[in-house]
UniProtKB/TrEMBL annotation:
Protein name per UniProt: RNase H type-1 domain-containing protein
SUPFAM superfamilies, alphabetized: Ribonuclease H-like (SSF53098)
The species this protein was found in: Chenopodium quinoa
Pfam family, one: RVT_3
One GO MF term attached to the UniProt entry: RNA-DNA hybrid ribonuclease activity
Tree of life domain: Eukaryota
Stored InterPro entries: RNase_H-like, RNase_H-like_dom_plant, RNaseH-like_sf, RNaseH_domain, RNaseH_sf
Domain RNase H type-1: 97-159
Length: 160
């Protein structure tokens, strides 16, 4: 992939640069996954033009006609910054984080999870193959697998 094509976003869209940057990161991640999973033919030929088009569409959705001429978002004053942070669990509690996914619908599926204590320290993790199913079933099976694991470990106070 020729990264120089992304530089063309900046001079043409100076006010749009943050949107262009975020859009570029997302699509690079997506194209990387296409490469990893053998779907390289789904990647566009002219990545720079594709990113500029996606940036323009996103910009149009989040701005008003007047703002497009001024290069400003109307919603900028309405936006509110929210601090996101991890909140410690009460002593004696554990947390279970799981994820399941399928390559296709249905497709090859799997899931994984991790159990941590009230200080965020790793207790146990797992990864599992669920054969062929839909993504929502893979999510469910990962949660079920994690709950069984917690029960085997004798964990009675669990946040999932």
């Amino acid at each position: 992939m020729d990264c120089s094509k992304f530089r063309s976003c900046r001079p043409q869209f100076s006010a749009k640069w943050p949107t262009c940057f975020a859009t570029s990161l997302w699509w690079i991640w997506r194209w990387r996954n296409n490469f990893v999973f053998g779907k390289e033919n789904e990647n566009p030929f002219d990545t720079g033009a594709f990113i500029r088009g996606q940036t323009g569409e996103i910009w149009d959705v989040f701005s008003t006609p007047k703002d497009r001429y001024q290069g400003l978002h109307q919603n900028a004053a309405v936006r509110k910054e929210v601090q996101v942070r991890w909140i410690a669990l009460p002593p004696g509690w554990c947390t279970l984080n799981t994820h399941g996914e399928a390559k296709g619908s249905p497709g090859l599926a799997g899931g994984s999870g991790v159990i941590r204590d009230d200080e965020g320290q790793f207790i146990k993790g797992f990864a599992a193959n669920f054969s062929i199913c839909h993504a929502y079933r893979a999510e469910f099976l990962a949660l079920k697998h994690g709950l069984k694991l917690a029960k085997q470990l004798g964990i009675m106070r669990l946040v999932a």
